[in-house]
Amino acid sequence: MGTYIVKRILAIIPIFLLANLVTFGMIRLSPVDPAEAYLAAAHIQSTDEILAQKRQEFGLDQPLFVQYVNSVIQISQFNFGVSYVTNKPVWEEVYTRIPATIQLTVGSIILAILVSVPIGFLAGLKKNSGIDHFSRFLSFLGASIPSFWLGYLLIFFFSVKFDLFPVEGIGTWKHLVLPSVTLALPLIALYTRLLRASVLENLEEPYVLFARTRGIHERIIIGKHVFRIAISPMVTGLGMNLGNLMTGAIIVEVVFSWPGFGRYFIEAIFNRDVPVIQCYVMLAAGLFLISNLIVDLIQMYIDPRISRKGRQFQ
Is there a single domain that holds both residue 161 and residue 105? Predict the structure, then answer.
């Protein structure tokens, strides 16, 4: 296990460097000069002298290889430069907004798990029953409704019409309800469908038949064996969605004026704030890599067969 973790952590390094290289290349190939973007965001009249001064200040007059190496060194120190708009360090700006995004992400994941696990599990156990038809309808609904439309729909009914929840902002638990529901519904659709299919598949596995022939109680078979193995695809999906939720809840944050990292990224795009955009991309890559590593470790704990297969290939 320890060797596997070390190998996975070491494998993150070249992937992270590749992501940084792609980001660096896209920024340099962009027709927008970072120095010109800075002057435009700061509302400074661009002249050749000022432009040359800013290019030298940002290191844009150096060879590309030197610029790339410097960017790697700075990012490894969590130094993403200074925002063109606020003239504050980007990491400090991001650090103040990440807790709001984490709060929204955790709330939506908890809601998705609480709803999808019982519905998906019961739908798999009772195929073609009422709960099964409801799970299919819920999956279709969650997969087909755009998040921005669902957000405005929830605001119209539960904020404007019934005045149950706040329209925007952050503060009490009521502020968290509507954004979490909006972000959780697609996850509920995905996890319910995955869990239902996995339960149906595992009920046909030989180990279930052998357990029944040995006289083991059906509740023990379902609760201790089938559920533990069937939950594995859902855990995989959770790992793939975790990084996406942390960095991709942009639409929800904009609709509900949620002061998170995604909304900050949208503002950076409109302002051509290159350091913020680069910080967002690198954090997204890091979150995806770390979340996938955590999920793989959880999978090895849930299903020991994965651990045995991993040792065979080492």
Answer: yes
pTM: 0.79
Place of tokens 């509740």: 219
SS3 89: strand
SS (H, E, C) 279-297: HHHHHHHHHHHHHHHHHHH
Q: Are residues 5 and 141 in the same domain?
A: no
Please give the sequence-ordered ranges of beta strands (E in DSSP) within 236-307, or none if there are none.
Answer: none
* Distance between CA atoms of residues 178 and 184, nearest Å: 10
Cβ neighbour number for residue 235 with a 10 Å cutoff: 19
Over residues 192-236, the pLDDT tens digits come to 999 999 999 988 888 888 888 888 888 888 887 888 888 888 887
Tally the domains of the chain.
2
- Shared domain check, 183 and 123: yes
Please work out, in degrees rounded to the nearest 5, the angle formed at the alpha carbon of residue 109 by the alpha carbons of 107 and 115. Answer: 100
Residues, the chain: 314
CA distances from 257 to 96, 128, 177, 180, 290 (A): 16, 41, 14, 13, 28
Assign 96 a pLDDT band (cuts: 50, 70, 90).
Answer: confident
Contact present, 92 and 79 (Cβ < 8 Å): no
Residues 46 and 179 in one domain: no
